[in-house]
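Interim report to the steering committee. The following record documents the input for Beta-glucuronidase (607 residues).
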Amino acid sequence: MKQIIIGILLSLSALSYANEPLIQNPQSRKSFSLNGHWNYIIDMYETGYYNYRMEPHDNTENPGASAFFLNQKPKSKRDRVEYNFDSAPTLLVPGDWNSQKENLLYYEGTIWYKKSFDVENYDRAKRYFLHFGAVNYRADVYLNGKKLGTHKGGFTPFNFEMTHLLKDKNNFVIVKVDNKRAADEVPTLNTDWWNYGGITRDVTVLEVSSTFIEDYSLQLDKENNKLLNGFIRLNGDAKAFSKVNVSIPELKLTKEFTADANGFVKFQIPVKKIDYWSDLNPKLYEVIFSSISDQVIDAIGFRQIKTSGGDILLNGKKIFLKGISIHEENVMRGGRAYSMEDATILLGWAKELGCNYVRLAHYPHNENMVRLADKMGILVWEENPVYWTIQWENLETYSKAEQQLKEVISRDKNRASVIIWSMANETPQSEERLSFLTKLAKTTREMDNTRLISAALEDHGKKENSNIMIVEDKFAHVVDVLSFNQYYGWYGGDIDNIKNIRWEIDINKPVIISEFGAGALQGFHADNLTVWSEEHQELLYQETLPTLAKIPNLAGITPWILTDFRSPRRTLIPYQNGYNRKGLISETGNRKKAFYTLQKFYQQIQK
Ligand code: GCB
């Protein structure tokens, strides 16, 4: 009986991907990094996870010798153990595996990672958490041979408490990373980007006091620009009715609050004079959140973002979003971007183009991007990886989408730069999809009522025998900002006819063109009607920009895309060679002609 119960409990824990609450602002906590070289084992058949009857080893009380997470070593010369992390090669963490080893470029499957570590100044009175910036796609995490948990979703952070398993010396963390695509996952089987696998963002050990500040928020009220709304959530045995404190030294402001029985307190702080954050004035205040045994410091900007009819208002003033779409790739090095240096390159290029806004497509990018955007004064659209045709009727698929959205909102809710949450990209219309997306939008509004909601929708082509383009989508009535991708002159329609196109949009909301573009191989020159030439891409921009500018409620654009990026769908040799070529900058960092066309357009708007 006991065994049956344990079996049920174990299988329940293996099946549920319920995550522990995210710890806010891991960068500013007492911590040490586990970045660096990790030993890895490629495990195409998941031999280290399933026994030969295909039962997971971590579902049983006594996992077999081939359970890789045990990190076993032969005890004598007669002992046979058919894996060894210590003699295995290494991969760098953070980093995708595809761009680190030639034989892994096309690999989709399981790779096991191992890192050994000691804890300097290990303190029994403290609590320890293992934090991952992101792992694509599924991570099964073990410490010292015991499972900490499982996380799914390739672009959002997660953490597990490991206090109960941690020692001062000779710890080993093992992560089974699986990036196989599946129809019921988010994203689903097909995307137009590379499925980079691995531990793609930072791994950190956080040390916190036994009762600590798990989460907090502080934002300007949507209606009253002299009021800050916030909350603090404590975690730990002493959380009930505990005192907490918020202070903003520059504003000479300190407030004390008392948490409720659950260690939670919601509060409002009136402010007199405040320097508002904007693209032109990216002012960040040092904010100190403290409790009896913990303190977290953040840099937070305060701003309002709203819509009024067809306008987007930043701090009450109409703003035009001069944007560009970006994938999370460091094209020069190859592979997923993850570092502050990577963010500096990408956002630096966006600034050089004249942008005050970026669309981070099609999934949550690493936190450095939004932290830097906060400092540089670049407004940000963040997106959930609900891309193309996912399983709208599948409730589990919905919860995977919702979980990833909640994780990015939780991570970035204090970033002034983030102004739009995008629910999805180019999803096919149906009642099931409408209720799926509407539910996501409702959840988003419940979590964060200070930002705008959108989604990259699609146009519906031309009305018969006319040059009038239409957008009809029931979800357009749910969003705050009507955004859509349009490729007239590339995927359909004649490039010569772009100038005659007019848009008929009968919803009075701000409009963002979330994508348009054309592919061009940098360095390939021809007349401007020759596809793949820089001149052809330039022509498409020259024709499209003035046409879009005539859309009555146009509030912004994010052409597709800043740089060429890897995509398995782009097979044409010699032009594509595995890259989507719609970048304004090549994968070698060279600007194409259209870069300057867009730059000029943004300079003119500025004037
Ligand atoms: C789109 C997609 C984007 C693609 C792009 C293209 O509409 O949203 O992910 O990469 O078109 O190049 O076809």
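Residues 1-16 have pLDDT under 50 and may be disordered. The committee is asked to note this result when reviewing the revised timeline.
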